Amino acid sequence: MESILVGLIILLSVIVLVQLLRVNELISEVKNEDPNEITEKDNNTQGILTFLIVGVLFLAFVLWQFKYWGIHILPPASSLHGATIDTLMNVTLGLIIFVFFLTQPVLAWFSFKYRGLKNSAAYYYPHNNKLEVIWTVVPTLVLTPLIIYGLNVWNDITNADTTNSKVIELYAKQFNWTARYAGEDNSLGKANYKLVKGLNELGVDMEDENAGDDIITREVHLVIDQPVLLKMRSQDVIHSAFLPHFRVQMNCVPGMTTQFGFTPTQTTAEMKEQEGEDFEFVLLCNKICGAAHYNMKMKFIVESQEEYDTWMASQKTLKNTLTLN
Ligand SMILES: [Cu+2]
What we know:
Layout: H1 2-31, H2 40-69, H3 82-113, H4 129-158, E1 166-173, E2 176-181, E3 215-217, E4 220-223, E5 228-234, E6 239-243, E7 248-252, E8 258-262, H5 268-275, E9 281-285, E10 297-303, H6 305-313, H7 318-321
Parallel strand pairs: 1-5, 4-10
Antiparallel strand pairs: 1-2, 2-3, 5-8, 6-7, 6-9, 9-10
Helix pairs in contact: 2-3, 3-4
This protein binds copper (II) ion.
């Protein structure tokens, strides 16, 4: 009902606008004027309006957004590599904001200053090689180091040494996540979607000697300051494992295994103290993968070694969960 009313209001507004324009044209006809002629007065009005809308209102809106929405920015990274991503983000954003506030007021001012008045026409200046060189070379000099810096950060993060990392699989499907710990041997048993059947929802190959001690869980517990290596698989479409607080994101692609290694540096308890009692580390899907995409979440808990051991001791291995035949 509400949307029909809104639609009706929009439709009526358009009709009113069209009719107003028509009235305007008729008045011009009566006065024997050309309604399409742009007068000095029109240019003046347009110039002032542009300046007010682009130069004042828009910039004020941008500042308002910083103030009122800025608080929703993620807290500082809770992982070792996250700090370098935050620095990269701050450098990039700082540069963009600086250039934005440098160029936008100039743009608004010039569109106002040369607003098509007869006594203030802009100088016709179609080409200048020196200027062309300047506005090609300067952005190149700024952007090339920024891109190289970004690529280096990404390479360092994705090529980190993971030999001592605890291996955990994240299995994505429409629409939930399942985790599989590699168990005592720290090696995940082989898996194949063809083996997905009944309780064996991840299609783990129970013939594989590494499979028996694997542990399937519905939430992920991590030990503070201990490196983990997440191995991702997907059953159906491309999902994306996104752990915003750890600055971790990697696509989960059907038919292949992708991975991301990181080290958590803050416990859930510490984060609750800092961000409020409701805080939880969370794994989200960051690919719009279907109708219930928004619901693809899994809790991550970072804790001490003792807490982790207690939790782990209460989990069942695959060998004990699946009955083989
Ligand atoms: Cu998804």
